Queue: 2 jobs
Job 1
Amino acid sequence: MRRKNQKSLLALLLIMIVSLFAVISGCSGEEKNVKSAGESQETKDKEEKVVRIGYQKYGTLNILKKQGTLDKALKSHGYSVEWIQFPAGPQLLEGLNVGSIDIGHTGEAPPIFAQAAGTDLVYIGHEPESPLSEAILVPKDSPIRTVQDLKGKKVALNKGSNVHYLLVKALEKAGLTINDIEPKYLVPGDARAAFEQGSVDAWVIWDPFFAVAETETGARVLADGKDLVKNREFYLASRKFAENHKEVIDLLLEEINKTDQWAKSAPKEVAELLSPELGIDVASLEKAAKRRTYGVQKISEQVLNDQQVIADTFHQLKLIPEKINVKEAALEETNN
């Protein structure tokens, strides 16, 4: 009987040990799961501290990238920067639309086409008017002497870019429309090749490609933006990013302003700084830097009204399918 009781007690003790081990294992598993979830969230938070900036081959953002000043300023606030280059504004804003970048810069036309296509972007700042930084070019020995002579000719341009509006306005002044020419929609690199090979009769382009064409091919200016367009450079962001990262936007504009103040009085230094990275000769970059304007500004009611005029023009020409309200792409703190 005593031996039987000992066996029962032993069995009971074994059951208790197994149960206790199960409880301890369960708690340990929960701790591991909690720790794992915490680490995942920490990793996610770190990943979310990256600012992705889209840039083109020329502008203040290029100077910031080269100098590293914006990277340093954002690093002190816990952010890192990823720089992504695009051939032109329309492609850059497509990147913004699909979520590949958070911030970028373009001319005046790309955000209108992008907004019309449903991109949820906002204007966060702009550079002053720079009408001399874009032009309609023809080869140096071309018989074309006036914009009226473009009737029936092949004209290369990047569709939806700032020069699209320049071409529309230049043709309008000459009594023509976009339907009176044969537009060839090409990115700058392809357009340059077509221009040099004689596959197109004219090329509508912006700096620094404009300056390079003058310097290297002797291209002749048929018309620039003077008295036709304002040609502002805009800084844009996805609405979600701008609303959730105001400190980044403010810091970006602050650093742009500092760089602009230096660049406007140092065109040769700007050219020498950017030449190795862009693969463009110093003379061409200095030419472009001298005719560009500097000094970042906040978005005003007047600027949005000017953008609305461009949007309405594109709608009338059926270049965008529906009329848009540019002010829907403004942040609340827009200046009156």
Note: Residues 140 and 284 are 17 Å apart (CA to CA).
Job 2
Amino acid sequence: MILGHGAAVSLYPRLAWYGFRRHATYWAAALAGAFTNTVFGVLRAYVLIALWQARPGLGGYDVAGVVTYTFLTQACIGPMQLFGGGLDLPQRIRTGDVALDLVRPASLQLWCLSEDLGRAAYLFVARGAPPTLLGALLFGIVAPHAPAAFLASVALGVVVSFGWRYIVALATCWVMDDRGLAVFSLVVTTFFSGLMLPLAIFPGWFGSLARALPWSAMAQVPADVYLGTAGPARALAFQAMWAAVLLALGALMTGAARRKVVIQGG
């Protein structure tokens, strides 16, 4: 049994609002995360300023641009969950509660996506704004090249991030311990998202490959849209393509999980 169109239209926005309110409850944790992101943003900014003063124009950015890039990518950590997590699926798979989720008359994937969008909206404000504002006060950052396109890019980046994290979380159905998957996801996401360094500075085929992978859609692309170093139409199309691919793969995995679920401990 699947929810009718009218019921689905009302359900998923309510789930998004629930996700927003649920995470707003933990405001102290959000403030602590914002403080940590800000401190590391300042440290990253000083390191990258020294690098760009030694290599002006590296990767197509000037010093003001790379400082802005630094605080924008720090602001993406919370909404995009660049360090992984954000979903309850692995725990529910281990306890067996996912069996109930899979027989609901609603899409498990859309259910999780709706809650995750609410979570991301809250963290965009609570954990994303403070590092950016303090970066502007301490160093000065450039104004957005296309504000509406930037917000659309952030939204698509969240969907791409969810698509990847959902796949990693649902893969717990086929392994006995998800910690290896979590570590792998952490490593590839923090590196290939552009959080560590702008992907534009990587040379040759490796740089081209890094910029073509889905993780770049989570931080590198929104920052480039903000700075105007990437065309908005092409950047948004790139993100939308990866969002569609990852969501489609997640839907296939959900169908497979519904047919055969391996539950650790029961």
Note: Residues 262-266 have pLDDT under 50 and may be disordered.
